[in-house]
Hints:
- An 8-stranded parallel sheet has the order 3-2-1-10-9-8-6-4. A two-stranded antiparallel sheet has the order 5-7.
- By secondary structure, it is of the alpha/beta class.
- The protein has helices at 31-41, 50-53, 61-78, 105-125, 147-164, 188-195, 210-215, 220-229, 257-269, 296-314, 317-326, 329-341, and strands spanning 7-9, 45-49, 81-86, 129-132, 138-139, 169-172, 182-183, 204-209, 233-238, 279-281.
- The chain has one domain (7-313): Divalent-metal-dependent TIM barrel enzymes (TIM Barrel, Alpha-Beta Barrel).
Amino acid sequence: MATDYRFSFGPWNIHTGADPFGPPVRDEFSFAEKLAFYRELGFDGVQFHDDDVVSDADAAWAEQEQEAKRVKEMLDDQGLVAEFVAPRLWEHPNTIDGAITANDPEMRRYALDRSKRAIDLANLVGTKNIVLWPAREGTYIRESKDGVAAVGQIVEWMNALLEYDTGIRILGEMKPNEPMDQSYIPTTGHFLGLAYRTVAPERVGILIESAHAILAGLDPADEMAYTLYHKRLWSVHLNDQNGPKFDEDKAFGSVDIRRAFNQVRVLEKNGYGKNGEFVGLDVKAMRTQKKEVSTKHLRNSRLIFLRLVELVRSLDDARVEQLKRDRDYEELDMLIAQHLIGG
């Protein structure tokens, strides 16, 4: 039976257009206004950082609890669900040297305590998925940290959270660089290797972002296939990327439509979404967009995904298999190209 896909994005995907080289260029929508866009754009799930749920992740718990309950009410009012919560461990002054792998044990303790609070917030908004983006778990210079110890600290952090709440799942979202020069666990394979060393490997999986795989010089479809084999692909962040530069978060399929087609194909062929997994987007509107049209990147990415689903389902699979048997890959290459361009 064909998958009926559900889509998600985070409120940061509707943004003011600021980047490292320029200030905001359009006014911010309020959180309530952003939530109102979801159904209109065809989305059901909301991705959260802990400080998307609450205004201050360091505030007293009673204050955070009250805010999180209000957010849950807002989700319910809009008919939306929370997909995950990710502790934002890379922006705080305590984590400039990393969070999980900081040299200072007090800073590592801060990161763990904040991550536990993120789990508490996730329970309040109705999700058991906790995403780890190890943004600063790396080095600017190799001599600044003990690489062996750092890998162990990441496993210890996961174990502490898995034991803190036996209902959660941890989803690793790997990236090879930026903001750090080099990351300790830069790819899907690195993280899955660590997952099997935890106290509950069945509760540790993967969120694959297209751009992050491309930055590592890998094909996102192959990364997805590897993770699907392990039965650990629990979310995706679809977007696009114009080469191995900074993380661009372009609209899905806007750079390389064939690369996007193969991501959709591997998801579709392997039943992704049938167990409730979301097709998540992590895309940025172009800086040139005016506020009133600054959600088109979300609309476009979803529509491109759905059109590619149609193309995957209409591909002549019998012909593909025959060409594979014949090893006539030139003809297969042309078959796919013609299918995509309508020739």
